[in-house]
Write a structure and sequence with these properties.
The chain has 256 residues and is an alpha+beta fold. The chain is 27% helix and 39% strand. The strands form four sheets. Strands 6, 8, 9, 10, 13, 14 and 15 form a seven-stranded antiparallel β-sheet that branches. The chain has a five-stranded antiparallel β-sheet with strand order 1-4-5-11-7. α4 packs antiparallel against α5. The radius of gyration is 25 Å and the shape is globular.
Length: 256
């Protein structure tokens, strides 16, 4: 009888485990990622149109919500357009990507009440870099003047920042900025309309932010994921770059 009871308990536990697992899989299957659209901006410094009307920033965004329509996340992919900036300024400047700012915000007063960004992925992780110029001083002992080069390098490299700078102090208007990102540009050979399909969500090209949010009472809210790019423009006669922002590209849509 004891062995029978143990068998019955084990059997019931197995059935419950199967049912629970099946329920979780079914719940996960009901969660679908919805592509909300692509967008671009063709402006530099907010109001200056880029050469040939080419884009200066590209964005693609998608969202997913739980079955209760109360929590979810929005993915924002963004790319710079170095081809455009280099063509716009010709050989006068050498262009780099200094930063890409991604943002998730609500756009109406009623949406503000029900919408909050809880966090981002990746989160806040900023690193400051300095170059050790001791080697220049050592060489300067034998080759006078090299130490001066080291001092210049030290000035230029002191405090260079990389990583991601998070600001969710305002949960209705949260940002994650990528500082000096690598491989952040999208070739002008790829249309802004096809950016996410041509590059793919798993590619290292561009930057990707996930904004985690909640919606009170599962109501419909209006949001605008967006992105803009800061370019660094270098000249041979200048040790520091001129920094300019593109105008933001954004996709207005609803959640729920």
């Amino acid at each position: 009888m004891l062995k029978y009871n143990k068998f019955l308990i084990s059997f019931v536990a197995l059935i419950m485990s199967v049912v629970l697992t099946s329920s979780l899989h079914a719940h996960a299957a009901n969660l679908k990622v919805h592509h909300k659209g692509n967008a671009h901006s063709s402006y530099i410094g907010g109001s200056t149109p880029a050469i040939n009307g080419w884009s200066t920033v590209v964005i693609s965004t998608s969202s997913i919500m739980d079955s209760n329509k109360r929590q979810g996340r929005t993915k924002v992919q963004a790319w710079a357009r170095l081809d455009t900036i280099q063509k716009h300024y010709g050989t006068y400047y050498a262009a780099t990507v200094s930063a890409i700012e991604t943002k998730m915000k609500s756009t109406t007063a009623s949406s503000n009440v029900a919408f909050d960004v809880l966090g981002t992925n990746p989160g806040h992780k900023v690193s400051s870099h300095n170059i050790d110029t001791t080697i220049f001083d050592i060489i300067d002992y034998n080759v006078p003047g090299v130490g001066i080069v080291g001092n210049i390098v030290n000035v230029l490299s002191n405090g260079i920042k990389s990583g991601t700078d998070q600001d969710i102090s305002n949960s209705k208007n949260a940002t994650l900025t990528f500082l000096n990102p690598t491989n952040a540009s999208l070739s002008n050979n790829v249309s802004w309309k096809d950016a996410n399909r041509s590059i793919g969500s798993n590619s290292k090209s561009g930057v990707t932010t996930e904004f985690n949010f909640r919606v009170l009472n599962g109501v419909q809210v209006h949001v605008a994921p967006q992105a803009r790019v800061q370019y660094g423009l270098y000249r041979s006669t200048s040790l520091t770059p001129l920094k300019i922002w593109s105008a933001p590209a954004y996709v207005n849509h609803t959640l729920n």
